[in-house]
Amino acid sequence: MERRTMSQDIKMVAVDIDGTFVHADYTYDKPRFRRILSRMNEAGCRFVVASGNQYYQLRDLFPGYYDELSFVAENGAFVKDRTELVFAAEMPDETVNEIIDLCREYPEIQNVMCGLESAYCQKGEVDGEFFEKTKIYYHRLKWTDDFKKVKDQILKFAPTVPDEKTYYYYDIFRERLAGKAEPTTSGHGSIDVILPGCHKASGLKRLVKRWGISPEQCAAFGDGGNDIEMLQYCGYSYAMENAAPDVKRAAKHICPSNEEDGVLVTLEKLFF
């Protein structure tokens, strides 16, 4: 009875992707998920993919039915409710140029500029190997001769730094760009530089307001630092067993790791 009541209460489930929903090889149990999604739909609960990754990469994980899902992509800078674009951040040109110049001060930073139409790497600043690796996360990715000449609506930047210097550069971005842009990170050398107040929870808030539900009716799953706001925002929050300690502290519950299908295991308990 308690389990059924919980599933009736939950009207939105938001999941991170890397380290949370998919295995290390980027697979997941598709038939099992489709069964769960069908049961969630019957219960009037919406499924939201909430990730720092690009929308075009995320939707390709759900071929044939991505229009049934909603997306908070680019760490909240892009929000889509099934087929309708709800929000896309737009960095001011001045901020865009300042971030480009800041990253150029540190040659070991490998920068990606993320636009509404595509993501971009600059020739001469990164090599072909980095470009190909980046395409795993950005299925729309182009070369440019100069970031400052790109004609696109810029959502965020995604600089990659040496793993052991993640928080060194995190602090540099936070101090140098204060009031204009903010860094967020899931660790391991990956940093996103986004507009202030733009994170996964801000994207979820847009959907919550749109759908007329409350944060208490939302569940979230995550494993990284960029999931903390989302976990704190949702009434039902689950950190993966493989999550960092601060992420576990932010969540109300711990679920099995991504390699153990922790999201699917938990959703089955909630909706079956």
Largest sheet: 8 strands, mixed
Count of strand segments: 14
How much helix, percentage-wise, in residues?
Answer: 25-40%
**Oligomer kind:** single chain
Unreliably modeled segments: 1-5
- Which percent range describes the beta-strand content? 15-25%
Alpha carbon gyration radius: 18 Å
| Strand line-up in the sheet with most strands | 5-4-3-2-1-12-13-14
Estimate the mean pLDDT confidence: 95
Question: Which of globular, elongated, flat, extended, rod-shaped describes the shape?
Answer: globular
Structural class: alpha/beta
Give me the strand/helix succession. Answer: HEHEHEEEHEEHEEHEEHEHEHEH
N→C terminal distance: 11 Å
How many helix segments? Answer: 10
Describe the structure.
The model is unreliable at about 1-5 (pLDDT under 50). By secondary structure, this protein is an alpha/beta fold. Helix 2 packs parallel to helix 10 (about 260-270). Helices cover about 35% and strands about 20% of the residues. The strands form three sheets. The protein has an eight-stranded mixed β-sheet, sandwiched between helices. It has a four-stranded mixed β-sheet with strand order 8-7-6-9, with no helix packed on it. Helix 5 (about 130-135) links the parallel strand 7 and strand 8. The termini are close together.
